[in-house]
Amino acid sequence: xxxxxxxxxxxxxxxxxxxxxxxxxxxxxxxxxxxxxxxxxxxxxxxxxxxxxxxxxxxxxxxxxxxxxxxxxxxxxxxxxxxxxxxxxxxxxxxxxxxxxxxxxxxxxxxxxxxxxxxxxxxxxxxxxxxxxxxxxxxxxxxxxxxxxxxxxxxxxxxxxxxxxxxxxxxxxxxxxxxxxxxxxxxxxxxxxxxxxxxxxxxxxxxxxxxxxxxxxxxxxxxxxxxxxxxxxxxxxxxxxxxxxxxxxxxxxxxxxxxxxxxxxxxxxxxxxxxxxxxxxxxxxxxxxxxxxxxxxxxxxxxxxxxxxxxxxxxxxxxxxxxxxxxxxxxxxxxxxxxxxxxxxxxxxxxxxxxxxxxxxxxxxxxxxxxxxxxxxxxxxxxxxxxxxxxxxxxxxxxxxxxxxxxxxxxxxxxxxxxxxxxxxxxxxxxxxxxxxxxxxxxxxxxxxxxxxxxxxxxxxxxxxxxxxxxxxxxxxxxxxxxxxxxxxxxxxxxxxxxxxxxxxxxxxxxxxxxxxxxxxxxxxxxxxxxxxxxxxxxxxxxxxxxxxxxxxxxxxxxxxxxxxxxxxxxxxxxxxxxxxxx
Length: 583
Known about the structure:
alpha+beta, Alpha-Beta Plaits, 5-stranded mixed beta sheet, 14 strands, 12% strand, globular, DNA/RNA_pol_sf, Reverse transcriptase domain-containing protein, RT_dom
């Protein structure tokens, strides 16, 4: 087996059984709308006992013959208005509805293909989109961890975020099919994919009236379950480019992080990486949206404010990257929205937290109306869907912000809870969280951190070198990573050991619990501690980081003192030998 992107094994179909089909359908949403044939998944589920043998035969016949039925290739596209001028077509989002039977065939192929790709490590480890067990939190964790790491080492950094124009709709199917033999496709499996993409047609439906059908020649099949997986295969090899920086992929959301100890070297490497990626996109017939492609500069050096002589361009000419050409420049921004969160160049998270507070504040009037017609239990469910989901999104990345910044979000959260509970503005916060059993902002961060620790204990392989054990029991030593900067010490990767110190001993062994059991443990731990105690806990965590830094400074002073005493001792010995020699 070679590295990701190629396979010496062959991908083979496995015929579906009645048991497989029943399990497959149980995991599918029965409320999805039907395609042009009018057969809904709900209908198939309701009559499964009578249709199961027919459906198994249809799916297996497709696999055996290496063909996808033409009658299942017609999509109904319904335009959904987003915002703006209703007469502008770009203000509509197309929703593609496919045949339910086609979805069953696709779902089975996806099950086989995904297991094949993952078991052989054929998908890039830097790809976080549309994969089991990893997603936005994992991508943001690694990205922010790497940014904090370069800052702590005194390096300068550039984060490039690339915007691909209509990436899913722009895939060249011939290029994709030519890639598949490297992933183990041959014979009827390869012929099936060719048949799957050929003769695709669609009709547009407005107010129940269908247009004439037209052929779709480009892109993965929108609305189908195989679309995302084929897209991952298409972009999989982009991280095999000889980039100076590190690439982060979430489907078509691409970021590149470059670092160097000098500005000239950093911008030279960023320009080089941008040129390599742009050439790769051009070869694969993908377009870069230059207006939405931006970059951030990270540095603890005050010299970053004097970077007017540097820039990043998308070079289509043959000149040097620093020549005075007319190639388009990439905009430098003070903050960038990537994977749903706002990353600022100082990693203070002020903009993201302010945006989150503004978003949930808009829901205040909704809860003002709901409190008179719904029970508090029902209102809490709506609160969790509208408010708590916004607060908790991406918290792995930004939850370590300073208390002053986080307090802006906490104030807005408490204001909404007081509306729900019909309490005055000065109602005590501790009583408020006892009255409405939901997590505070600080509790949500602790919960997110602990669940992430349970899910990915391998993400925290702390090296014992140059670290201090912060808790020693008969079973567990939790080392604490040393950081040079106060801000980098607040990232979950560096601060987690201080949180683990406060846990009961049994919670320090996450593998002993299932995910649901560990969540119950977390709930009990946080609720028993209470809102105020969790705030104090976070303050103590940060004071521990401060004390550890003092220990580091003290060790440094002792080391210098030892070296100085050694130097004086050496000088004294030389003087003594000189005096004895003169005698």
